[in-house]
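Posting for a labmate who doesn't have an account.
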Amino acid sequence: MSENNELKRFTTINFLNLALGFLGLQFAWQMRIILSAPVTEGLGATPWLYGLIWLAGPFTGMVVQPLIGALSDKTKSKFGRRRPYLFAGAIIASIALWLFPNSGNIANLFGTNVPAWTGLLIAAVFIWIIDACINIAQGPYRAIIPDVVPKEQHSLANSWISLSIGLGSVVAAATAPFLKWAFNYQMSIPAQFIMAGIAFTLAMTWTCLTIKEKSTDSVETISDNTTAKSSFWQSMKEFFALSPEVSKICVMQFFTWIGMMCMMIFFTNFAIHTVFGVPDLTKLSVELQQRFLSTQTAATNYSSICFAIFNLICFLVAVPIGILAGKFGNKKVHILSLLSMVCAYLIMGIFKTNSVIVGAGMALSGIGWASVCALPFAMLSQYIKSGTEGSVMGLFNIFIAGPQVLVCTLVAWIIDKSVIQNGEFLNYHYEYTFFIGALCLLISAGITNLVKEKV
C-alpha cells in the first residue's frame, strides 16, 4: 500500500471516519471566527487592533503549516506520520479555547494595578495559540488524503472534508441561537468555547483511531531541526517546479482568500455595527454600553444564525459539487461557484441594513464556500508527487494565509478610517469589506479560467 494506485477505494464509512476530525476542527474554528470579535471588543479592541490580532491566523498558517507539513512527511512513529500532529493540535487548541474568553479574569489575577490592555494582550496570546494549533492539525489533515485515498477519489474526499466543514460550522454556529429560540436560554460565550474544545478533541480522536495510515517503514526519521529546515526549503523549490499550472492555482487561491477573509473576519462586526446599528462600544461609558448590550447579544446571535445558514448550504452542496466536478471538471464548477459568491457579496454590501437580505446573501455565499473548501485542493493534488503531500499542502497554505495579512492590516485600516459620526456615537463602514471581497473573488474566477487541468 505504498503507492496511490494500490490504495483501496474508500467506502462511505471510510469517508465519514476521515471527515469527522475535520468537523471537530471546523467546530473550533467557527467559534473562533464568530465570537472572537465580541470578546476582544469587550476588552477594548478597535477595528484596527482587531485586525492586528487576527494576524495570528495568517502568520501561524504561513510558518506552522509548511514546517509541520515537511516534518510530517518525514515523521516515523508507531502512530503514523500525520496522526501525532492531528491529535496534539486538537488537545492544545482545546485548552486555549477554554481560556480565551476568560482573558479578562486571568488579567485580574495579576492585581488591580495592571494596565487596562493586559486582558486584550492575554486574549491575543490565546488566539495565537489557537490558530497555531489548528494549523498544526490542518496541514497534515489535508496531506493525509493523498496518503490514504486513491487518486480517482481525491475530489470526492475533499468534498467530504467540505461537507464536514459545513456540518461542523452549522452545529457550532446554530447551538446558541437554537437554545435561545427553543428554551429561552442564552448560552454564554465561555460555554460556547468550552463546547468547541470538547468537540475538537473528541472528533479528532475518533479520526486518529479509525484511519489507517501508510506504513512509515520506508520514511527516514528527521534527526534534528536542520534536517527539517532543509527539507522545507527543498520542498519549496520542488513545489514551484511542479507545473506552470501550480502557479496559477496559487494565484487563484491568493485572491480567493482575500475575498473569503473579508467576510469571515468582519461579518460579526458587520452584523453588530451595520445591520443592527450598535455603535463602537469601546468609545462609550459603562452606562451607555449597558444600553446596547441586549442589541449586541441579539446581533451576535444573528451573526451565528447567518454563519449557520452559510455553512448549512456548504454542507448540502459539498458532495454534489464533488460529483459535478468529477463530471464537468473542477475548473468549470469552481468558476461558477466563485461567481455566485461575488453576487452574494454585492447583495450584502448594497442591502446592508436589511437582515433578511443579508441572511440570503450568506446562504448564497455557502455555494462558493463549499467549492473553495474542496476544488482548489483537488486541482492541486493532480500535481503532487508521492511522499511530498504534507510539504506541498503546507506550502499551498501560504497562499491561503498570506492574503489574510492584507485583510488584517490594509482592509482593517480602511475600515478604521471609514468613520461614521452620529452625535456622540461612532461607527464604521464595515460594508466596504464586501465590495473589496467581491472584486478579489471576481479576479480569482478569471484566473481559474486560465488553469489547464489534467485530463
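Reply:
Got it, the C-alpha cells are right above this. The radius of gyration is 21 Å.
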